[in-house]
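Q: Start with the shorter request: fold the first protein.
A: Done. Sequence, then structure:
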Amino acid sequence: MPETTRRAERLPGNRYGNRPTMKDVAARAGVGLKTVSRVVNGEPGVTPDTERRVQEAIEALGFRRNDSARVLRKGRTASIGLVLEDLADPFYGPLSRAVEEIARAHGALLINGSSAEDPEREQELALALCARRVDGLVVIPAGNDHRYLEPEIRAGVATVFVDRPAGLIEADVVMSDNFGGARDGVAHLIAHGHRRIGFIGDMPRIHTAAERLRGYRAAMEDAGIPVEGRWMSLGTTSPERVRRAAEEMLSGPDPVTAVLTGNNRVTVTVIRVLAGHSRRTALVGFDDIELADLLQPGVTVVAQDAATLGRTAAERLFRRLDGVPLAPERILLPTRLITRGSGELPPAD
């Protein structure tokens, strides 16, 4: 007889949503509620034989401890929330994993979700996590106004922002040096003889995109190179928009000879565009991408350490949860230029 059938026979009338309680466990084991509570919470005062009977009842019934009730008693859920921009973006995989590992080391559960770069969705998700009594939040902000979190922070919800700063509130933030990384990437192209250098980035309202554009312009200014308006394009990272921008920069009598791409999604589209052109164009991408070293030539990138971003933010969060008095701080992590060939191509003319 299938196991599911046997279980159904043992638990007649069982319905989804009707979870077994400690009262059910006590009745099956023939003990009092206090004894079940001691076994469930690992407290002393229960004989081995009684503990065995309770554990057998727990196993047979599929009982799970109600942590919500413990929250009411202790005020802590041993859970934290992570609000990402896009769960599907490869950049956030190592970051999320690092936050999860730190949470696990502190005996906490990580609950995450994505804002899809929508400020309203970010606020809705962050407040929903707070309503579920998470102890802290790690937020990659989509919006520029985070005053909605002030009541939660005052109520004791530790909050750390990652990748971009909070808007209109004082809070911890852990970021990469976007300005310095972009400036280094463009300076690298200039050192290899390029003067007509394009920049294709994300939406200008996004802090990282604005900082990378600022780094691009600073490197060009440092080298005394006037920047033409058609060399810069910021907007959505949709392949259609990025393709149009790249094609415009690569056309005409004086096309750009090199491009700095503002993030991994832009880089992938630009690589596809360059593959269809006979003229070789130098490329430096902000953010590393999978298989970048296997392309011909390999893709030179300004790499962020996403795992260190996540780990640093989570460690900061748990220091706050442990009661360490800390003033809000902006922590800036360095980027790293990885040369693989595409950024070292000389100008075609």
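Q: Next, the second protein, separately.
A: Sequence, then structure:
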Amino acid sequence: MERFKGKVAVVTGAGAGIGKACALAIAREGGRVVVADIDGPAAIACTAQIAAEAGQALAVAMDIADAQAVAELFQTAKRRFGGVDVLVNNASAMYLTPHDRAILDLDVAVWDKTMATNLRGTLLCCRQAIPEMITRGGGAIVNMSSCQGLSGDTALTSYAASKAAMNMLSASLATQYGHAKIRCNAVAPGLIMTERLFAKLDECMQRHLHRHQLLPHVGRPEDVAALVAFLLSDEAAFITGQVLCIDGGMLSHVPTYADGGNSAALPAGDAAQAAATSHW
């Protein structure tokens, strides 16, 4: 398929993980991609992979918390490729999550920095993209939310709040600019095993989280990229203002599901053993 032939995409946080998978998916279907990331070498490596597959891409090292850098990013996209048709707001301040604690233990500076990148940075990118999309007759935006923004947790207070706010930002954008033929949706991944997350989660925590999924396999960045590419494409022309979970069913079951061994499809005698030996 060439769903993005003739279109220009800006993908933030595209140096690794989900963002990189999104950039590759768009490029593989004919899109020209501006690969933006605070990690310049990672952005360059992503564009090199796109070029090796005969795609077109440009790497930009920048911080979406910096309004001037965001403006320059979209100026670069216009100067090099003529504008922007689709935008993936994937960048977030993941380096802060180890310090993102419960409310009474949370350093307010962590809250402020998280909001400056995750929420304000997304807003800044949207504000730059919308006028360009209007001049080109419309466009599509996907904001990378999280299941953390849809349920409470014992930590990640700032991250969760920023993602919940991003869901409403997406709905507001869809409402305000739908008549200008601009669509906006949010995607809320659950446990997606990026290289960064795999290095951070020990085996015990991996098993614990996996027990709460309905599907027996782990989510991959490519799974999220496939959903994002669909939402950005004309196939999703009548979908806007939505928050779509891609979490293996983690948020769709009763709280006691994991305690039952996740084994309704197994013979009754195998339930306890399945729960005790659950693994990746």
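Q: Describe the second briefly.
A: DSSP finds nine helices and seven strands in the chain. Strands lie at 8-12, 32-37, 56-61, 86-89, 139-144, 182-189, 243-246.
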